[in-house]
Design goal:
Elements: H1 2-25, H2 30-43, H3 51-73, H4 81-102, H5 107-125, H6 140-156, H7 162-171, H8 177-201, H9 207-229, H10 233-255
Helix pairs in contact: 1-2, 1-3, 1-9, 2-3, 3-8, 3-9, 4-6, 4-8, 5-7, 5-10, 7-8
Length: 256
């Protein structure tokens, strides 16, 4: 009984942190939630969270946190539909395929995919794009194809994909930072629909453990969004890079 209460408290805290970060830097929170679910409960003697279960709970948290974040960003003038439509449709297709294929993989494969994505994201975050070099118009076909590939990989770990969408749009497509942060939460939400449904179907989502994560997600994601609007772009960029780097290093050490 005591262990169950401890787990619920931990899930509340993990959900709050992940959702706040989600709203702050325009990601779904998976970059924080997944490793926290794997590494924090064992510190309190709880060994029941497997990579498969962590990916399912992450998918649930991402779905609700990006839903909440999208509602908060609905009237943001920085939202770019030219990014959302092609990437949203592509990442939905990819996430469905990725979430289904994850049920066929060993747990170690999920950790390896997550680590690879995190390392790639960190590398891309340090590709500097000057404001005068940013673009407002993009090739929709290329956006769609890129989103499908991101969706497949992020779907495997239960992520909405925003933690890789953000650096890809910044470094490869040279989209304006503020527009990327505002739009990526919508793209991640669309992706999370497919991932959450497929993870539920394959039995990776524990709906009882999901509740604490969801409750704090709905509360904290809008708060993160409000703080984001008042925070310097460079600060947000460094926060995102630091979070991804920390998660990548931790996961890499576990694999090795």
């Amino acid at each position: 009984m005591e262990q169950a209460v401890t787990l619920i408290i931990l899930l509340l805290v993990i959900g709050a942190v992940g959702a706040f970060v989600s709203g702050l830097v325009g990601i779904g929170g998976a970059i924080i939630i997944f490793p926290m679910l794997l590494f924090i409960p064992p510190l309190f003697g709880i060994e029941t969270i497997t990579p498969h279960l962590a990916s399912g709970l992450t998918a649930a948290q991402v779905f609700f946190s990006t839903l909440s974040g999208s509602i908060s960003q609905h009237h943001n003038p920085a939202v770019n539909r030219r990014l959302i439509i092609p990437m949203g449709s592509g990442i939905l297709v990819g996430s469905l395929a990725g979430a289904y294929s994850a049920s066929l993989f060993d747990a170690s494969i999920i950790n390896i995919v997550y680590t690879g994505l995190a390392i790639l994201a960190v590398m891309l975050m340090f590709v500097k794009v000057r404001p005068e070099h940013t673009k407002e118009h993009f090739n929709p076909v290329l956006l769609f194809i890129t989103a499908v590939m991101i969706g497949v990989l992020s779907g495997i770990v239960g992520a909405g994909g925003a933690f890789i969408i953000v650096p890809v749009l910044l470094a490869l497509f040279k989209a304006p930072f503020r527009s990327v942060v505002a739009s990526s939460i919508f793209i991640a939400f669309i992706s999370s629909i497919g991932t959450f449904i497929m993870k539920s179907v394959t039995g990776d989502v524990d709906f009882m453990l999901m509740i604490p994560l969801v409750v704090t997600s709905l509360i904290m994601a809008p708060i993160g969004t409000k703080v984001s609007k008042a925070t310097n772009q460079s600060v947000l960029r460094y926060i995102l890079a630091a979070l991804i780097a920390a998660a990548a290093v931790k996961m890499l050490l576990e694999i090795m």
